Amino acid sequence: MATGTADFVVIANRLPVDRITAPDGSTMWRTSPGGLVTALEPVMRRNGGAWIGWHGAADENLKPFEHNGLHLVPVPLSDDEIAEYYEGFSNSTLWPLYHDVVAPPEFHREWWDAYVRVNRRFAEQAAKVAKPDAVVWVQDYQLQLVPTMLRELRPDLRIGFFLHIPFPPAELFQQLPWRRQILEGLLGADLVGFQMPGAAQNFVRLVRQRVGHKTHRDMIYLPDGRTVLAQAYPISIDAAGFEELARTPEVIARAAEIRESLGSPKTMLLGIDRLDYTKGLRQRLRAFGELISDGSLHVDDAVFVQVATPSRERVDQYKILRDDINRLVGRINGDVARIGQQPVTYLHASYPRSEMAALYRAADVMVVTPLRDGMNLVAKEYVACRYDDRGALVLSEFAGAASELKGAYQVNPHDINGMKSMMLEAINASPREKARRMKAMRKQVMENDIDLWASNFLRELTSVRDPHAKNPRPV
Ligand code: F6P
């Protein structure tokens, strides 16, 4: 197969930008949703190379192009493939299965067939773009078959894989009719990265039990002499970039304006999430609503701003969630609002980074309560923006970020009463206590930023396998 010119290639389901068609037929590019893009964009900016991904629209064949200094290589998806590979197998089978089955996963054979077909297309595109001996970094659950497909086409490449979401325990993973194929797909990589050590252990255990390969700690030994390393690399953000943005006069002014337009409340609480059933929006809004209705908080004193970015809007579970949240917000506001004082401000929209930074700057308490989350970068963004050491973070113990952000007020989002008392504790903590906690979290986030994450992963990937040696780490 003819090889390409890129010595570093990232493959993700999405490109960092989506192609949007306006009602008048004109097209434009908009930043894609989600933490993966937020995290990887600065990495690509610093490392160069090619980014292979889908551009968010159906049935369009686009040529590779440059956008804001990035070299982007679009992979086309048909309308049927969006339904079966993206909305179906990726987001109605794998997504709920990997997130503790908080919604029931659906298993359909035609979705699996589309997943295989689309993964092959991504692998073929990467095989064309990558230079001999290039480093190729495959991202996330939508592309778990790509490592092996790519290795078959291009054995010269060093292939890394990173899973941005949780990897479930064997007891749940085993439900998947195609469990062995997924494990074998991932084993095409030299290095398989996870957010948490527990996820890497789940994977190694499954490989031993289901595929029968020999393993020792984080190393898997394949019969052909190749080794695969499975390790945790907790992802982060461009922490300095967020802080810099939060320090700009425009963002500071906008933060003040936000508070004023909310009626200058004593306490502003904030949630920012994709509108996703894993994020625990219902639970946190219920907890806040009860704090107002039982008199623990006064409607004149506290406001909850919830930004919910539209996501996967054609998937049934997301449609149900959208209606549920609309109803819940309507009920809370209907029950406890007073003229001019609405306790919940609900914004079903996506905003640019500068508006997010202003919201982070404005909020006294950030509430991040997923039922399960690989990492949760919003929690880290909030911390990066609080260079004043003010503000408090209420954080679910089921977010990957909880193991790093020990200064957060940690909660079990299933425990509404526990969450209510922790929210009150965060609201009422002394400035000194808040500063103590924030300082500790800031140290963690500012020192462990996205550059360190990427360089740790890539360093291990380049040292784990010399492409010309067969087995550099003997058993
Ligand atoms: O990190 C999880 C993730 O699914 C990413 O892979 C993805 O880009 C992001 O969330 C947003 O989801 P989607 O691409 O389905 O809009």
CATH architecture of the largest domain: 3-Layer(aba) Sandwich
Terminal residue distance:
33 Å
User: Which strands sit side by side, in order, in the main sheet?
Assistant: 5-6-4-1-7-8-9-12-11-10
Q: Kindly report the average pLDDT value.
A: 95
Structural class: alpha/beta
Could you state the CATH homologous superfamily of the largest domain? Glycogen Phosphorylase B
* Range of strand content: 15-25%
Treating each run of at least 4 consecutive H or I residues as one helix, how many helices? Answer: 16
Low-confidence parts: 467-475
What's the Cα radius of gyration? 23 Å
Main sheet? 10 strands, mixed
Q: Could you give the count of β-strands?
A: 18
Architecture overview:
A hairpin with a 5-residue loop joins strand 11 and strand 12 (227-232). The chain contains 16 helices and 18 strands. Helix 2 (79-98) crosses helix 3 (109-129), helix 6 crosses helix 7 (197-211) and helix 10 packs parallel to helix 11. The strands form 3 sheets. The chain has a 10-stranded mixed β-sheet with strand order 5-6-4-1-7-8-9-12-11-10, with helices on both faces. Strands 15-14-13-16-17-18 form a 6-stranded parallel β-sheet, with helices on both faces. A two-stranded antiparallel sheet has the order 2-3. It is of the alpha/beta class and 475 residues long. Mean pLDDT is 95; it is low at 467-475. The chain is globular and about 65 Å long. It has helices at residues 35-47, 79-98, 109-129, 146-153, 170-173, 179-186, 197-211, 239-246, 249-261, 281-293, 316-336, 353-362, 377-385, 416-428, 431-447, 450-464; strands at 6-14, 17-21, 27-31, 50-54, 65-67, 70-74, 130-139, 158-162, 191-194, 214-216, 219-221, 227-232, 267-274, 302-309, 344-347, 365-368, 392-396, 409-411. The chain folds into 2 domains: 6-235 and 452-464, Glycogen Phosphorylase B (Rossmann fold, 3-Layer(aba) Sandwich), CATH 3.40.50.2000; 239-447, Rossmann fold (3-Layer(aba) Sandwich). Helix content is 44%, strand content 20%. It binds 6-O-phosphono-beta-D-fructofuranose. Residues 13-14, 33-37, 140, 164-165, 311-312 line the site of 6-O-phosphono-beta-D-fructofuranose.
